[in-house]
Design goal:
By secondary structure, this protein is of the alpha/beta class. The protein is built from nine helices and 14 strands. The protein binds ribose-5-phosphate.
């Protein structure tokens, strides 16, 4: 029997991090984005007012945690506080890019575990559920004691690549952390999997000390897939090493194109045939590269939101969407 939704209308509220994605989701759902005033006091503090009643409503706040993540996180908490005080029925944070997830364990003495800290802060702020995309590591789900739904961009990227029918293709995992994701892509594309062993500097987190290819790439076209491109160091170095070892065209797929600092320039100069990304974070004009293809997460997020709102089973929906993307029906 289909569960009865105990909440009033579904509402989409947009934080200031990615209004275009929020609009895209709302359009898919056939509803407007709920009007809200978000502004700054002269001392930099954030002011929020929801411009219409959301009493008892099922509210989805779209706020991706791209740079500056601290500001967007605080803004999310303030929006949620306003919603709670306005008697929203249920509040779901739609956080396509979940920042701070890379620090999901201690790798050295006296370090924090920020993924857990942010999960705790979200619950304390009054968020009832979270909907996110491609968490840095699946186990971060366990840091939340509230329901969390987790969508993956891999079927979109795999479906796109499948249509290209690239010959002699090999999937390359840019580090050990991406093996599972890369293995899934290799299975979807029916290719072999090669792994790069990456060693980062312990002192300078963004510096890569060494990359070694474990497998054969000579004469092969390559797809490298990663959850995020931050400084671009991992991908640029990986492409260099692959090319030196005789790889042909290099395609790169990633869910979260953060492109911090000079990443866009570095990627533009790298020998990348195509860079396939999603709109989990906004891409300002100056970071858009001619090799880039942007796939939108809005349809999948909207379907998931609908499912959460109606209280219907999600597994079947995800299986259907996955096969639609892989078979090129979407
Ligand atoms: C690492 O564990 C991640 O999956 C990415 O490979 C990494 O965070 C990308 O960062 P950057 O672009 O700065 O190398």
């Amino acid at each position: 029997m289909r569960p009865i939704n105990q909440y009033a209308a579904l509402k989409i509220v947009a934080g200031t991090s990615h209004p275009a994605l929020a609009k895209g989701i709302a359009q898919q759902l056939g509803i407007p984005v709920t009007p809200m005033d978000v502004s700054k006091f002269s001392d930099g503090e954030t002011y929020v007012r929801i411009d219409e009643s959301i009493r008892a409503c099922d509210v989805f706040v779209v706020q991706t945690l791209c740079n500056p993540a601290n500001d967007y996180l605080m803004e999310l908490f303030i929006i949620v506080d306003a919603l709670r005080r306005a008697s929203a029925g249920r509040i779901t944070a739609v956080v396509p890019y979940f920042a701070y997830a890379r620090q999901d364990r201690k790798t050295n003495d006296r370090e924090p575990i920020t993924a857990k800290l942010v999960a705790n802060l979200m619950t304390t702020a009054g968020i009832n559920r979270v909907l996110t995309a491609d968490l840095h590591a699946d186990q971060v789900q366990g840091f939340f004691d509230i329901p969390l739904d987790h969508i993956k961009a891999l079927p979109l990227i795999a479906g796109y690549l499948k249509k290209k029918k690239i010959k002699d293709l090999v999937v390359v995992s840019p580090d050990f952390g991406s093996i599972k994701r890369s293995h899934e892509l290799a299975t979807a594309l029916d290719t072999a999997l090669v792994v790069i062993s990456k060693r980062r500097s312990r002192k300078e987190h963004d510096t890569i000390e060494d990359m070694t290819i474990l497998g054969e790439v000579k004469g092969k076209n390559i797809v490298i897939v990663d959850d995020m491109i931050s400084t671009g160091g991992t991908i640029v170095r990986a492409v260099e090493v692959l090319k030196k070892n005789g790889a042909k065209d290099c395609y790169v797929g990633c869910t979260h194109p953060l492109l911090i600092g000079h990443a866009a320039e570095k990627l533009a100069q790298a020998d990348i045939k195509e860079l396939i990304v999603t709109d989990s974070v906004p891409l300002p004009h100056q970071k858009f590269l001619k090799q880039m293809v942007v796939l939108s997460l809005a349809p999948w997020l909207a379907k998931t939101i609908e499912c959460i709102h109606q209280g219907t089973q999600m597994g079947m929906l995800f299986d259907q969407l996955k096969s639609d993307y892989l078979e090129g029906k979407r």
